């Protein structure tokens, strides 16, 4: 007990550090555990140190037995054994404490030392070499192919019209890490791992197919990247207590690409292209400098769990609170305090912040004190995005704004459903934050790059949009593999109501615009009406699209209508439909991208129509259309009147009313029954002429699809294509089961023939049972079999005649409909 307390005291007093916390409980204090395992450890320790001990134990036992029962010796033998066992146990405990202290001291020294010695990573490179061909190379090739495809499309030169990645293979040579140096350092209380990076490969094959523009229009050039050399120094920084790692190159790496014209095989030999090689090298260096060279760093998250969701975008709310210690340009510093205010005391000079997230740009108001706190909602695409904040100063009577500085904040979705934010702090620090769910507020103080100022920003991740929406699980699963890549209908309808717009960009000289919208879903396009001279237009127009399984977005483009020139673009937006739940309307304001201002107010709703399709297949609907009257019709005759009648067009069905002579307010009161098959219902009002062709005096479309069953709607519908005129209708969508239909005459006859045939077969079977005599049995059986065969043949002939009759009647009805349409 005293020895343990002494050891703990010595450990605590060494170097002023409490190392007693590094010891287990059995080594500090009185202990309290049972000694069974401890005795086993002591015994094994004695066996290792003193191999002769097992042979001495029987000798001691024999001596003790002789002394105890045969020849009495003195009592010093038990005392010696006890002393010897105590000494051995003390040595064992001391050795255990020393080993444990050494291990914990090494661990503490590794965590607190500022640097580590330089050492190579041959063991790590050996591991990478083993798992490269069948795992890393395939995953990285798939990942890099998507990045390269997007990047070359964005930065293609003018001689290239389109460019596609046809093949992407990184080869068998993996990158090597830490060949020259690998060590840890402590920078501003932040551990940093420095590691060399070298990737030299002459076995890679990246094939690009570039379609050339004029004067080589139509020709395709095959560009083959066959080698790569990248050398640089990596810097890895653990953040958020090990939940993520930031990594980047310390400086711009050396990059060389080997590019050839052709595929490199015998049919199309490769030819070196220095011009294309320099363009691709510049493109790669520009991409690295923008995303992965200090101070810009990428983030590798280390989540505990994986929700297995694919993110397609999200909504971020940004509030710029303050901007402090922003350095002013030299010409701005010469302004006096009085120059910053007008004669009436109002502020006319101040700073504003421009926010850029992807293609979306917004700005705060101008504030002389650099304080704002106005939330701005921004929509982004993908699982990772970068928010750029550019600070400007707007001076009085100046069209140009002075640039004061910039900074950026990056954020990404983590697979466990959380979000990580990070930014570059004061050199060499890093600012990072982590939220475990949406709608959690994060406040960051981000320094201006290469300046002394800083910006305080409040961020709220409102929503993540996922591709694996519950609606996808309801789509048909029984699909052939050959058709999985094609588009298929999900059975839902997407209803988009374009409500209004606000703060649109002025495009006309009057400071106004004539805005209209174009909506595109897959290959279906719709267009709103044009609102004249308005920056806050109100449309209130509804559009409906059939939802496709691969339809992820609805694209919206806003234009300014111009009669003499081409319509000018006023911004665009993409609406993510993955998180749209069935029968749950969403009211959203969508900011326009690629422009500084403008928002569109939309109402989105996904209506599931599959329930109605699976109700009862025996259920049909009858449209009962009553054409009541019309009023204020256009005069088509020379005497100021018309001879109106209505032509009804419903799919392939053509019907018409009677003609009301010399009337502009005719009264028909005619009823028409139409089988509801979902076809568009159109009414055409025409003027009847005996000699001349009929003249149209208006038309209209009747929207009945949303009408409830067994409900009568009484409407006055204005006529289109004419200056005036209305038609009065009553329409009822009445449900009717097939068994309630009046049976046709041919069906009655068919059922009657089947009934008679059944009776004949029953009589014949009774005759078979009545035959008992052996003399006449064979003869009657033969005759009855012949009768049965004749009856069956008659039944077949009668059914065939009935089918031919039904076919003839259907042809007559089609001819009658065609004649009615001509009239």
TrEMBL record:
It is found in: Membrane. The keyword Phosphoprotein does not apply. Keywords: Coiled coil, Lipid transport, Lipid-binding, Membrane, Transport. One of its GO terms (biological process) is lipid transport. GO terms for molecular function: lipid binding. Residues 474-590, 596-717 form the C2 domain. This is Plant synaptotagmin. It comes from Selaginella moellendorffii (Spikemoss).
